[in-house]
Design a protein that fits this description.
Blueprint: E1 12-13, E2 16-17, H1 26-38, H2 43-57, E3 63-65, H3 67-73, E4 76-81, H4 91-104, E5 109-114, H5 118-130, E6 133-139, H6 140-145, H7 147-155, E7 159-163, H8 170-183, E8 188-190, H9 201-209, H10 211-224, E9 230-234, H11 239-245, E10 255-261, H12 274-277, E11 279-283, E12 286-290, H13 315-322, E13 326-331, H14 333-347, H15 353-364, E14 374-379, H16 387-390
Parallel strand pairs: 4-14, 5-6, 5-8, 6-7, 9-10, 9-14, 10-13
Antiparallel strand pairs: 1-2, 3-4, 11-12
Bound molecules: pyridoxal-5'-phosphate (PLP).
The site of pyridoxal-5'-phosphate has 19 residues, from helix 11 and helix 15.
């Protein structure tokens, strides 16, 4: 018998995802879903986006063979260089795509949430390019911790609203942006920053970020004559990872790894490993895995990399975990810091602390990876933004 559970529903990944929102949020989400199905599939949208990705953002990004590290490790380590994109990380792939959609929908204003400030900067950048107004919601605590990114957003012409609710961090900024969207939907589009939130955001963001994996498949075939044996990416909300991993899912022989942030790793410490250590629950309109206490209250996440600091995770990751297609590992703060230094010294590339978690997983499991393997890591961003923070922990002499 065919039951409801077994009927594939749009916006669901197995039982995860969906659209668990108040009725007042349904009209803008339905309008977005229509635009996604219509405008985003139009040749005009696709051609304009391709041109912007190439001439404004700097795609396609190269794949670099780390030959010094490969000699040390006994297998070939390749990096997909999203760190070389305009604004320094993969986030612009998504921000430019959704902001272009806003423009073609006739909206004059985009809003965004931001934690560390990276998605806010990417959205402010895209809004400046398209001549749209931009408002960024940021937890008051984050706005204080990430002052340079607040200045960047303002320089780009955005208005930054410091959110004073709850824990004054990312999850509160998302709640506030959703609330604002309800009362300004006629002229405003919400540009969501990761592959999470209510349908259709997880699908839109995955489709926009999948350019990472699609290019990688072509480039690895060109450069090595085959696909890699392992593909590894760090998981915060999950956008760079799903963009890299999704196109590889059909290739069963390619091992896929997502790496969550384990925090300090001390017993009872705060972390951001929603898949490894969370439980099912609803947050920001989706059913997913969440860090929560026994009463189902959301716990504050914590990681040395602000970009991985989210108490939930995108629903497609939870599904890929549940069917065993992607393995989700953990890297701790100290391991990420050590990977941050190691890549800088041996290859002359300073990685973002987020991306350092993916590298750290590879270094930690190097002994289990067969000699002669090809390992591809998504270098989601560059580390300049993390320098001051990382140098608290890393001795330079
Ligand atoms: C924001 C960010 C991440 C984490 O976000 P995802 O949506 O999980 O990709 C990872 N790396 C960098 C460089 C970031 O800026």
């Amino acid at each position: 018998m065919k039951t409801l559970e077994h009927t594939p529903r749009p916006g669901y990944f197995g039982p995860y995802g969906g659209r668990y929102v108040p009725e007042t949020l349904m009209p803008p989400l339905l309008e977005l879903e229509n635009a996604y199905e219509g405008i985003m599939n139009s040749p005009q949208y696709r051609e304009t986006l391709d041109e912007l990705l190439r001439d404004y953002c700097g795609r396609r990004t190269p794949i670099t063979l780390c030959d010094n590290l490969s000699r040390e490790l006994g297998f070939r380590l390749f990096l997909k260089r999203e760190d070389l994109l305009h604004t320094g990380a993969h986030k612009i792939n998504n921000a430019i795509g959704q902001t272009l959609l806003a423009k073609m929908m006739g909206k004059t204003h985009v809003i965004a949430e931001t934690g560390a400030g990276q998605h806010g900067v990417a959205t402010a950048t895209a809004a400046a390019k398209f001549g749209l107004r931009c408002t960024v919601f940021m937890g008051a605590k984050d706005a204080e911790r990430q002052a340079p990114n607040v200045q960047r957003m303002k320089l780009l012409g955005a208005r930054v609203i410091a959110v004073q609710n709850g824990s004054c961090t990312l999850k509160d900024a998302i709640n506030e942006a959703l609330r604002y969207w309800i009362s300004h939907q006629h002229d405003t589009l919400y540009v969501f920053g990761t592959a999470a939130g209510p349908h259709p955001f997880p699908t839109i963001v995955r489709n926009l970020q999948s350019v990472i994996g699609r290019e990688s498949i072509e480039q690895m075939k060109q450069q090595t004559g085959k696909l890699p044996d392992y593909v590894v990416a760090c998981v915060g909300g999950g956008s760079n990872a799903i963009g890299m991993l999704h196109p590889f899912v059909p290739y069963d022989h390619v091992k896929l790894i997502g790496v969550e942030a384990g925090g300090t790793g001390e017993p009872g410490c705060e972390h951001s490993a929603a898949i490894n250590l969370g439980k099912p629950g609803v947050l920001h309109g989706e059913l997913t895995y969440l860090l929560q206490d026994e009463d189902g209250q959301i716990l504050e996440s914590s990681s040395i990399s602000a970009g991985l600091d989210y108490p939930g995770v995108g629903p497609e990751h939870v599904y890929l975990h549940s069917i065993g297609r992607v393995h989700y590992g953990i890297a701790y703060d100290a391991e990420a810091l050590s990977a941050f230094s190691r890549l800088s010294r041996t290859e002359g590339i300073i990685p973002a602390l987020e991306s350092s978690h993916a590298l750290a997983w590879v270094f930690k499991h190097a002994a289990d990876i067969p000699a002669g393997s090809d390992v591809l890591v998504n270098l989601s961003g560059r580390g300049d933004k993390d320098l001051a923070h990382a140098l608290h922990y890393i001795p330079l002499d």
